């Protein structure tokens, strides 16, 4: 049986940061935890992840200094494959056994042919939310569809899905966060403990690099806790040996 894990930071609500978090997590596990990572960008037609990679490659070619910095890392960048949702399964199968982790960036809608079959071949789905009613109301039916059509269905490998807070604002009242988590628990939808803080830094190119590890100036905002928690979930059933991956990531962060 292949040890490759298939992960998606996914939502049907646009603007909640799923693509940025896919980059942060893929880069952390690849560059810091030394896992062999690949990314499938099937968020058609924008293919934002592939677009970011192309932009970074152009900057490297135009800057000998940046190219030297990248080579000094001593690591290759993880591959990013752009495709449609219906082709994503075929791409994923080609990666099976070749990588430790494959992150899949999916469209921000469930009304895409092939999306349910793709969900069924993922191990875990993590759903970012903002502290507003529209974001919550979009996540609830998304989780319900995952439960009804993907998790525990014949031929499905989906073990669990989790909601978590992105753009968390510590200074505001926490009532909405707490009430939402309580309601989700009543609906049987698990919540991550980690919360990514709101920050303008997420708009910076250095924060969303697909070709370099996250700079220490950005290694806060809840990212360290998120990576540790994701690792503990992803590797939970693999025993102590493989569980070293989240520990390594956390120490690096």
Q: N-to-C terminal Cα separation, in Å?
A: 31 Å
Order of helices and strands: EHEHHEHEHEHEHEHHH
- Total E-strand runs: 7
Silhouette: globular
Into how many domains do the coordinates divide? 1
CATH topology category name = Rossmann fold
Q: Output the strand order for the largest sheet.
A: 3-2-4-1-5-6-7
Strand content: 15-25%
The first-level CATH class is given as Alpha Beta
The CATH architecture: 3-Layer(aba) Sandwich
Low-confidence stretches: 240-244
Rg over CA atoms, rounded to whole Å, is 18 Å
Helical content band: 40-55%
Tell me what you see in this structure:
The structure is a single chain. The protein is of the alpha/beta class and 253 residues long. The protein has a single domain, classed as 3-Layer(aba) Sandwich (Rossmann fold). Helix content is 43%, strand content 16%. It contains ten helices and seven strands. Helix 2 (48-62) crosses helix 3. The longest helix is centred in the middle third of the chain and has 17 residues, at 133-149. It is globular.
